[in-house]
Amino acid sequence: MFAAGERDFSENVTAFHQRVLEENLYVSYAIIPPQVSRATTASGWEGEYLQVGVVEQTEAGITVRGSQMLATGAAIAD
């Protein structure tokens, strides 16, 4: 997957994984939408870009708008 397309990122991903293993690093990643209301699911919330979404796609890349939650462990992650 990381080698698909114009740019090959597969060596970067493999090297990062190896570094995490060798240095015993603590990493954190969150990909959850912000909690706007406990009364409904995310699909019922008002607003087009509460969660991150692609606004525009050009040859130079993509433009996104919205937000994601921060993982609680991110503050102490390497």
Helices, strands, pairings?
Elements: H1 10-23, E1 53-58, E2 61-65
Antiparallel strand pairs: 1-2
| Strand ordering within the main sheet | 1-2
Q: Please state roughly what percent of the residues sit in beta strands, choosing from under 5%, 5-15%, 15-25%, 25-35%, 35-45% or over 45%.
A: 5-15%
Sheet/helix structural class = alpha+beta
Number of strands: 2
Indicate the low-confidence ranges by residue numbers: none
Largest sheet: 2 strands, antiparallel
**Residue share in helix:** 10-25%
C-alpha end-to-end distance: 25 Å
Radius of gyration: 17 Å
Number of domains: 1
The rough form would be described as flat
> How many H/I helical runs?
1
Following the backbone from N to C, one meets helices and strands in this order, namely: HEE
| Overall average residue pLDDT | 83
Note the main attributes of this structure.
single chain; 78 residues
What does this molecule look like?
By secondary structure, the chain is an alpha+beta fold. It has one domain. It is built from one helix and two strands. Strands 1-2 form a two-stranded antiparallel sheet. The radius of gyration is 17 Å and the shape is flat. 0% of the residues are buried.
